[in-house]
Specification:
The protein contains three helices and six strands; from the N terminus they run ααββββαββ. It is an alpha/beta fold. The chain is globular. Strands 2-3-4-6-5 form a five-stranded mixed β-barrel. Helices cover 23% and strands 21% of the residues. It folds into two domains: 1-51; 62-223, OB fold (Dihydrolipoamide Acetyltransferase, E2P).
Length: 224
């Protein structure tokens, strides 16, 4: 087409060339933006993962998934649900034995003891390894003993979960060391820590708990 002639769509040849160049630049800008958007979206997706962490966490085996589901149980319990009183002394012993059949995971109980330690935890399988201890958005591992000066090997582990923190944003008021507390929650057998427990360890150089039973999650704490 010669310069100055009218194209079928009504543009002169010169104007058509300018239009096509403008259209090309527009497409390039949009394409660059599109690629940038896809890159950022893809990067964010890879970092943040595929949506919220499920109740089963990042576990792959069915047994581990069931454990995480128990750990992530709701802390919203009906006021009509009555916990069974269980003495802390019945949960702690110095006689080495297999503890897996002591109690039943999921039983709702209440017990009393002294808070020996409380540690903000980070990434674990139950939170898809996404929690950060410095952000205090994971579990709190608490040591409950029979006396104010109980050693870790003579304590059970009880745990505040993110669900408890959401319900009680002021949860740190409960973390008073050497104070006697009454704890209500669900029993859980954390078989992963059999190697860390006095009752079941085989190489017992780094023991930091009495047995593998926990109150996890905690649904209620009272300072006595």
């Amino acid at each position: 087409m010669k310069k100055g002639l009218i194209s079928p769509n009504g543009y002169s040849t010169g104007n058509l060339i300018c239009y096509l160049q403008s259209l090309k630049l527009s497409i390039m800008r949009k394409t660059r933006f599109g690629f940038a958007f896809l890159f950022v979206a893809g990067f964010s997706f890879s970092i943040l993962g595929q949506g919220p962490c499920p109740k089963s966490g990042s576990a792959t085996s069915q047994k581990a998934k069931q454990l995480n589901i128990a750990k992530n149980k709701t802390v919203a319990v009906s006021s009509t649900k009555t916990p069974t009183a269980l003495s802390l002394a019945s949960m702690i012993t110095n006689t080495k034995e297999d503890d897996k059949d002591w109690f039943t995971t999921g039983d709702y109980i209440v017990t009393e003891g002294f808070l020996i330690n409380a540690i903000e935890e980070g990434g674990e399988s139950c939170n898809c390894e996404a929690a950060d201890a410095t952000l205090k958005n994971g579990d709190v591992h608490m040591y409950l003993g029979l006396t104010k000066n109980a050693k870790p090997k003579n304590c059970i582990i009880i745990e505040i979960t993110p669900a408890f923190k959401k319900k009680h944003p002021d949860y740190e008021k409960f973390l008073v060391l050497k104070k006697k507390i009454r704890v209500t929650g669900f029993l859980l057998y954390d078989y992963i820590h059999r190697k860390d427990a006095l009752m079941t360890c085989t190489n017992c150089g780094k023991i930091w708990r009495n047995n593998s039973w926990e109150i996890h999650p905690i649904t209620k704490i009272e300072i006595l």
